[in-house]
């Protein structure tokens, strides 16, 4: 199997996962969609389920973005196509847009249900129990993704290392968004949605381990000086 064929197969599978699976998970979690267009549904419920849909797609888009970065090395490129700068930029913007839609729909639902503009939801508050703690993690992730995008723009125009390191906060953003989504919904800890979150966590965990292995291998290679005569490490050549 050629490298291009491997890339095509792997990214077709991942592309299908990103497009199809969040929708299937959402449909399974909400039940009959027609019910939400009836008169018996509580006010704001349609906005709630839309917020859930955008949230599932947001966490999946961020997952793919982080996966791209972690598997973008020369050693990993045997299996994973290295994304271009344009791919990276547009996927990041798309993920940010999904996060905004998620937050706006949720605040809209709360506003409609309480008859008050729920702008307080965009300020993290850890002082009111389990649900509020989970919500606060999502708020931090919501604002952090803006910092990630801004640092991505700045690192192309500035040589300061701080922007490059700040841009790596994307992994933290995903972690916060992941924990937020897992904690805030009771259905996320059972059934299809549980396995959805588990697959994201395991795949990124594996990618992190591969990346760490490559970094350690690179450090080892730097310290391994080869004898120009025998083609073996100098320490062994001097014995």
Automatic annotation (TrEMBL):
The keyword Transmembrane applies. It comes from the Bacteria. The keyword Repeat does not apply. It holds the Pfam family Ferric_reduct. Keywords: Membrane, Transmembrane, Transmembrane helix. It is a multi-pass membrane protein. It is found in: Membrane. Residues 61-177 form the Ferric oxidoreductase domain. Its main location: membrane. The chain crosses the membrane at residues 9-29, 49-70, 90-110, 130-153, 165-186, 192-212. This is Ferric reductase-like transmembrane domain-containing protein. It comes from Fluctibacter corallii. The lineage of its organism: Bacteria, Pseudomonadati, Pseudomonadota, Gammaproteobacteria, Alteromonadales.
């Amino acid at each position: 199997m050629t490298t291009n064929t491997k890339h095509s197969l792997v990214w077709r599978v991942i592309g299908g996962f990103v497009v199809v699976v969040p929708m299937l998970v959402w449909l399974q979690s909400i039940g009959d969609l027609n019910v939400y267009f009836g008169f018996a549904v509580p006010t704001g419920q349609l906005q709630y389920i839309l917020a859930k849909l955008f949230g599932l797609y947001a966490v999946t888009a961020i997952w793919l973005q982080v996966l791209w970065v972690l598997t973008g090395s020369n050693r990993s490129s045997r299996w994973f196509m290295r994304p271009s700068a344009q791919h990276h930029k547009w996927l990041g913007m798309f993920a940010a847009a999904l996060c905004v839609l998620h937050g706006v729909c949720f605040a809209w639902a709360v506003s409609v249900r309480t008859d008050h503009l729920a702008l307080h939801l965009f300020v993290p508050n850890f002082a009111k129990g389990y649900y509020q703690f989970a919500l606060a993690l999502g708020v931090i992730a919501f604002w952090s993704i803006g910092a990630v995008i801004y640092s991505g723009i700045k690192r192309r125009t500035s040589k300061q290392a701080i922007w490059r390191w700040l841009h790596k906060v994307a992994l933290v953003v995903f972690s916060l968004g992941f924990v937020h989504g897992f904690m805030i919904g009771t259905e996320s800890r059972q059934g299809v949605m549980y396995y959805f979150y588990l697959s994201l966590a395991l795949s990124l965990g594996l990618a992190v381990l591969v990346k760490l292995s490559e970094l350690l291998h690179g450090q080892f290679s730097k310290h391994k000086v080869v004898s120009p005569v025998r083609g073996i490490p100098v320490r062994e050549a001097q014995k």
